[in-house]
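Prompt: I keep going back and forth on a fold encoding question. Comparing notes only helps if you start from a blank page. Show me how you would write down a chain together with its backbone fold. Please set it down just below, with no commentary around it:
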Amino acid sequence: MLACFAIRQTDTVQPNASATAVPNGFGPADLRSAYQLSTSGSAAMTVAIVDAFDDPNAEADLATYRSTFGLPACTTANGCFRKVNQNGQTSPLPATDPGWAGEISLDLDMVSAICPNCHILLLEANRPTVTNLGTAVNTAVNLGAKFVSNSYGGPENGLENSDDTSYYNHPGVVITASSGDSGFGVSYPASGKGVTAVGGTSLTRDTSARGWSETVWNGAGSGCSASVAKPAFQAGLTTGCARRAEADVAAIADPQTGVAV
């Protein structure tokens, strides 16, 4: 079984907060400033989010986040949002799970923050296994997604190269996966040869020209794959790994300097 990678900080809850209060943490404007991103993104692009189990409140929670931060509506009705099962069908959807629902909300909010005009395709796998989640990845690509986010993972088991071929090898499509949130150690599918492994950082404001300071978060996963060969893009780099090293890129993930959800 694979695990979702989302950490919720519970010691910053605002007592007696009103229904319209902005939650603690960095919002869309902060993130676009920190990473020097455009304010909108392209409405022609579809970003797919792959998770396990059903979040029955996904669209409603997405609407709350977007209205709170002044982002344009993204709904089933206006064609911006679509939720399907791992085979691309609107029903039947899998069973619900509160833990994975939290991951789904985080993923939907972050796509909204970074690319407010992008279409969002949410795929809910039946179970948190490589077979089910990988099937959802294939479906996402078949439905036209050019970016597929995977915020889950698990230890390598020696089947990585076979699973890469079956599920995570999509030239021309950006497949990302979280490197994990338990510190040093490799996570799959982040260690896959066709996957961009995304690590985590701690992000704070400062007085530099950028306006932000960023350091490695000690909870971010990293390490050397035991089975996946070193990819061409790591050739010549000093990684300390005989095979594939992760992570490849990184962004804010530390819950102590975290994002608003």
